[in-house]
Amino acid sequence: MSFLHPAGSVIDLGVNIDHVATVRNARGTVYPDPLRAALLAEQAGADLITLHLREDRRHIKDADVLAIRPELHTRMNLEAAVTQEMIDFACRVRPQDVCLVPERREEVTTEGGLDVVRYYSQVETAIKQLAGEGIRVSLFIDADEAQIEAAAAVGAPVIELHTGRYAEADDEVEIAAELERIKQGVRAGVRRGLRVNAGHGLHYTNVQPIAAIPEIQELNIGHAIVAHALFVGWEHAVREMKSIMVDARLGVSLGE
Ligand SMILES: CC(=O)[C@@H](O)[C@H](O)COP(=O)(O)O
Ligand SMILES: NCC(=O)COP(=O)(O)O
Questions:
Q1: Confidence bin at 251 (pLDDT 50/70/90)
Q2: Of all atoms in ligand 1, which is nearest to the CA of residue 199?
Q3: Where does this protein hold 3-amino-2-oxopropyl phosphate (predicted)?
């Protein structure tokens, strides 16, 4: 399977199912089942399933990853911290993709990108171990030239640009500035031959300008889809997000 679309063609939707597990864990029940969510998301148009096995297992558990991996028809993008425990686990599971993310136990969600510059040797070692198992490695980084440069130098074939600052911006000037920063980051990644993805904090409105950036290959979106699904249903929420992304990519404004 070729993962690289020519720039400007279709755009992949990675559905992050973390918060299906959040709802399940709220009562310690077996429902809603993240495996069922993953399979239904694929049927509704998801191109991949993303899940973040956090060190504190606040939502996705090891058993979820092990149960989901053999059942997917698309591909698994496992998000994990750069720790030996997580790298060893990922090598055992062998998802198609691993996205290395920073983690601080007390954080509510991922706050910033991985500091590849600072942790270069640890990231390099992790990439070699994962790539040795045939796993494609993505680095979840800020749209920062130095981080993108380091990501290319350290041997990562993929980067995922953190769109959190763009998503949290609350005035038009700041939103425009963050969008331009992401566009510059995309161009910097493409210049270095990297596959460029993006994600974090994207929802049904703010996703459109990001999906319209032709060189972006994939968006990973979770919290907003789970939230919307509470009102419209899971499959509809996934289908709607994919449709908005494709329309944005094709330059079709909503309502046409
Ligand atoms: C890396 C990223 O931006 C998301 O996958 C984020 O890590 C989700 O973590 P939570 O689902 O715990 O907010
Ligand atoms: N890497 C981003 C991701 O997987 C989903 O982030 P969010 O949409 O839950 O903020």
A1: confident
A2: 3
A3: 16, 27, 201, 222-223
Distance, CA 126 to ligand 1 centroid (Å)? 20
Contact 38, 49 (CB under 8 A): yes
Q: Which ipTM score applies to this complex?
A: 0.95
pLDDT tens track for 27-51: 999 999 999 999 999 999 999 999 9
Ligand nearest, relative to CA of residue 59: 1
Residue 62: alpha-carbon gap to chain centroid: 18
Distances in whole angstroms, Cα of residue 178 to Cα of each of 149, 185, 253: 19, 10, 21
Q: How many CA atoms lie within 13 A of 28 on its CB side?
A: 0
